Amino acid sequence: MTSTSTAHAISPDSGQHWTEPGAWRVAEGIHRIPLPLPMDGLRAVNVYVLETEHGLTLVDGGWAIEESRTLLEKSLSEIGFGLRDITRFLVTHVHRDHYTQAAVIGKEYGAHVSLGIGDKPTLDLMHHHDDVDEDPTLAVLRTAGAHEIAEKWQKFTDGRMPDLSMWHYPDTWLDGDHEIEIGTRTLHAVHTPGHTQGHFVFADHADGILFAGDHVLPTITPSIGFEPVPVEQPLRDFMASLTKVRELPDLRLLPAHGPLAPSSHARVDQLLDHHEHRLELCLAALAGGPATAYDVAGELPWTRHEHRLADLDEFNGALASMETKAHLELLVARGQATREVTDGGVVFTRA
Prior knowledge:
By secondary structure, the chain is an alpha/beta fold. 32% of the residues lie in helices and 23% in strands. This is Glyoxylase-like metal-dependent hydrolase (Beta-lactamase superfamily II).
């Protein structure tokens, strides 16, 4: 589901496409810097720069690639700063386009890096990859019934080791909802598991803005159920976190991907409605009889263009299979479906 196409979205702070390079003023002392994701369909990640008397705090860091670092330096210079002025990173979650550049620059310049403790199992897995027989994602794909995708995923990932120079542990683990003082500004750190278990958003009630990371995106829905260390009910966690953000005041939405949006409440309502609709579609697909998540995913439309599962590439086919499994597991938790573990994967049946 989308409200507008991300590919054509204009951001109100720049008056241009949201990926247009620059340091765009969001509010007094806050700028948005879009950084490139050259091998990613999202195209860019928004990094937010908060000025204080004692240096800069950045919400998210970008992906640790040369193009991103070069543009970050150039954009900071436009507002009179450099990398040495960064004193702190508040990272919304552990995904590479948010965390890795913060980890690298933090180590190089002594900037303090904070990350949600719920993402510690992901970093632990990377730092102890020799103790793991295979990528845990393969097991999730197999239980989803996506065996052909799992085979292709295994061929792609075999022998690929994480570059630990980009995956340092943070200086501080964020744990539970709490306040963070950034100069004269107070940010309310709100734990929002779902997209990842360690995801945090940061609310500035005085300025009426929400640094939303990937939890609330204005034009696309965040992926659910795609974590190196799987959890039992990622969709339940995500929807509960959306409800939690809905209970905050209505704030201007500052997302990690896409343009600024005027109302966090409006977008949260759309996302909750979207997933309730997807749950209905999943339940309807089970009317034809017992099925795996992969079978059900094949019955559903994907993306705003309503593609079929067979039209997606392996990566997006994997995301679709795992997200469908997350929806079906929530139907089981709600008593609307049952599950049975078989050799071919978990088979779901309408209750």
